[in-house]
Amino acid sequence: MIVGVVGGGQLARMLALAGYPLGLKFAFLDPSPDACAGHLGGHITAEYHDHAALHRLADLSHVVTFEFENVPAETMTVLAERVPAYPPAAALAVAQDRLREKSLFRELGIPTPEYRAVESVEALTAAVDSLGLPAILKTRTLGYDGKGQVVLRDRAKLAAAWSRMGGVPCLLEKMVSFERELSIIAARGRNGDTAFYPLVENVHRNGILHISRCRAGHPLQTQAEDYAERLLQSCDYVGVLTLELFQVGERMLANEIAPRVHNSGHWTIEGAVTSQFENHLRAVMGYPLGDTAANGQAAMVNLIGEIPEISELLAVPGAHVHVYGKEPRPGRKVGHVTLCMADDTRLEAALGQVLALIDRR
Ligand code: AMP
């Protein structure tokens, strides 16, 4: 069985690493000849809108999926005409437009930060009048890792902020004073069965995910599962879906979804009974979903821009190192370390050691 993957980055690579034990083979479509998943299967080097290349991928695959959400929704529609393709193109289209995404949350009764759609500097001024400052201006499309957004604190600087965003359609969001950022990773199989991983607490640095900690037993777990379930059912979803949330007291506000395996779920490779990558493959293949329980205490640290000395990382108790095979570059995700321990005290100690090795450089 061959799984076609649109995109050949680290998520595609980790999908392949999870799929080989199940007897699956892989073909990747990615415009970059250096795509880091390329060593793990066939690689079609082509643009995402190249129909001939999409037809080739569809014809050699039994099922097709994607690994990042800026794949044109049309790409998945073209593929779905020839081969089973999951998650559905409709979920991709929602995740690509912050206004559609927030509107869907509202329709499904999932609370969000207050927001307004803005398409002109006048609309921005009116939105600031209504929501107050500080607020965050975000482009509706093509934002990720903190890109395509600016924090507004000063009424005098609205016009400058608007022109900095390039005058494209945006969303203005009220700035939420959250206690922590959480994410829930959910999976839905072809038969409609669902499964949910424990909530994860995420810490960002320079707009990029830095540390994720599994928070099994979190008091808001049931609420988060309910929100994720509504999203999965609303679009007959198949595959892994991630919902990012802000915790404010006993409430959670939905920030965004990722219709794919997610960086905040990398800890599941060693820290859960079944990894998010295996469960995504089980879902799209129509296999039963695997157990999502955590094995113990787990945390993940991203390696950004460069890889510390591997032997030093591996000397940390409970550390598992993942290197993606990408050329190191500032701000680029080049690997991660997962820490798994029986208890929280030892986990925190090991985490401190890994952070010291990263920050020493
Ligand atoms: P996003 O691209 O929407 O995920 O935003 C990137 C990061 O900006 C989030 O992980 C938060 O740390 C922060 N952020 C986004 N929206 C808000 C908000 N409405 N209030 C406070 N912080 C936010």
Please characterize this protein's 3D structure.
This protein is of the alpha+beta class and 361 residues long. The protein folds into three domains: 2-85, Rossmann fold; 114-174, Dna Ligase, domain 1 (2-Layer Sandwich), CATH 3.30.1490; 180-359, D-amino Acid Aminotransferase, Chain A, domain 1 (2-Layer Sandwich). It has helices spanning 10-19, 51-60, 73-80, 89-95, 98-107, 121-131, 158-164, 221-234, 268-271, 276-285, 310-314, 344-359, and strands spanning 2-6, 25-29, 42-44, 63-66, 115-118, 135-139, 149-152, 170-174, 180-188, 194-196, 200-205, 208-214, 239-248, 251-258, 297-304, 319-323, 333-341. Strand 9 and strand 10 (194-196) form a beta hairpin. The model has no long low-confidence stretch (mean pLDDT 96). The chain binds adenosine monophosphate (AMP). Adenosine monophosphate (AMP) binds next to strand 14.
Can you tag this structure with a few keywords?
361 residues, alpha+beta, Rossmann fold, Dna Ligase, domain 1, D-amino Acid Aminotransferase, Chain A, domain 1, 3 domains, nine-stranded antiparallel β-sheet, four-stranded parallel β-sheet, 12 helices, 28% strand, globular, binds adenosine monophosphate
Write the layout of secondary structure elements.
Blueprint (H helix, E strand, L loop, with lengths): L1 E5 L3 H10 L5 E5 L12 E3 L6 H10 L2 E4 L6 H8 L8 H7 L2 H10 L7 E4 L2 H11 L3 E5 L9 E4 L5 H7 L5 E5 L5 E9 L5 E3 L3 E6 L2 E7 L6 H14 L4 E10 L2 E8 L9 H4 L4 H10 L11 E8 L5 H5 L4 E5 L9 E9 L2 H16 L2
Parallel strand pairs: 1-2, 1-4, 2-3
Antiparallel strand pairs: 5-8, 6-7, 6-8, 9-10, 9-11, 9-13, 11-12, 12-15, 13-14, 15-17, 16-17
